[in-house]
Amino acid sequence: LQQVPQSGDLKQLPGAGCPPIGLYPDRAGQWEGTTLGWGLPSPLSTRLLRLDHFLISIPTAVCGSDSTPEGLVGPKGDTGETGVTGVEGPRGFPGTPGRKGEPGESAYVHRSAFSVGLESRITVPNVPIRFTKIFYNLQNHYDGTTGKFHCNIPGLYYFSYHITVYLKDVKVSLYKKDKAMLFTYDQYQEKNVDQASGSVLLHLEVGDQVWLQVYGDGDSYGIYADNVNDSTFTGFLLYHDTN
């Protein structure tokens, strides 16, 4: 703090070697001694302060330690390098469950199956065997009047047959489109009842037909059935074609 005399002249305040302070009379035109506080204003600006009865004009220099004014503010510097990644924060709480989705469309299931049996013994070779006892034929892909299965769905099918052999030998084959695909032979033992069977996987196209028939010219049609013995023929779709 510096006591300023009653004068309108510019005075140099000691202590920092900074520019002088101008003193001006107040509104009443009176000069009075007063205690003035010394402070540094913003760079390159002039500020008038009213203290008691005086207005103080503070020039625009900011003084360095050697009484030399500092220069103008330089241009903005380049962006610095990216800092290292910080430590991972704590795990957040689970979010609220989302809305329930709309029901999707049901996938269409392709079905094709049959299971049939004989009602009496076979006496004629080299023709399709007509299995007329129907266990299952919901899609009606098996035709009991012809003894043939008709493919309506292209894909991979499983076929099997189980034959009761009685009174004569049995030679039976499974046909696909007029071509024998599987052969089974059983030699009858006198006073015995035998069983013969076969199974196969076949790929079928729409319109293909599958059936069983006795093959050969000999007396080999001992396929038998009665009220306590069955001979059966079964087939069903495993996988439908997707292309």
Write a short abstract of this structure:
Helix content is 0%, strand content 38%.
Record keyword descriptors for this entry.
disordered N terminus, 15 strands, 243 residues, mainly beta, 38% strand
How would you summarize the topology of this molecule?
Elements: E1 2-4, E2 22-24, E3 34-36, E4 47-51, E5 54-58, E6 113-117, E7 133-136, E8 142-143, E9 148-150, E10 155-176, E11 179-186, E12 194-204, E13 209-214, E14 221-224, E15 232-240
Antiparallel strand pairs: 1-3, 2-5, 4-5, 6-7, 6-15, 8-9, 9-13, 10-11, 10-12, 10-13, 10-14, 10-15
Can you walk me through this structure?
The protein is rod-shaped and about 135 Å long. The strands form 3 sheets. Strands 6, 7, 8, 9, 10, 11, 12, 13, 14 and 15 form a 10-stranded antiparallel β-sheet that branches. The chain has 243 residues and is mainly beta. It is 0% helix and 38% strand. The protein has strands at residues 2-4, 22-24, 34-36, 47-51, 54-58, 113-117, 133-136, 142-143, 148-150, 155-176, 179-186, 194-204, 209-214, 221-224, 232-240. The model is unreliable at 1-63 (pLDDT under 50). The protein starts with a strand and ends with a strand.
**Structural category:** mainly beta
* Share of residues in helices: under 10%
> What are the low-pLDDT stretches, counting only 5+ consecutive residues below 50?
1-63
Number of strands: 15
Helical stretch count?
0
> If you compute it from the alpha carbons, what radius of gyration comes out, rounded to the nearest whole angstrom?
56 Å
Spell out the helices and strands N to C: EEEEEEEEEEEEEEE
Average the pLDDT over all residues and give the rounded result.
79
Beta-strand percentage?
35-45%
Question: Tell me about the biggest sheet?
Answer: 10 strands, antiparallel
Distance between the termini: 99 Å
| Assembly category | single chain
Shape: rod-shaped
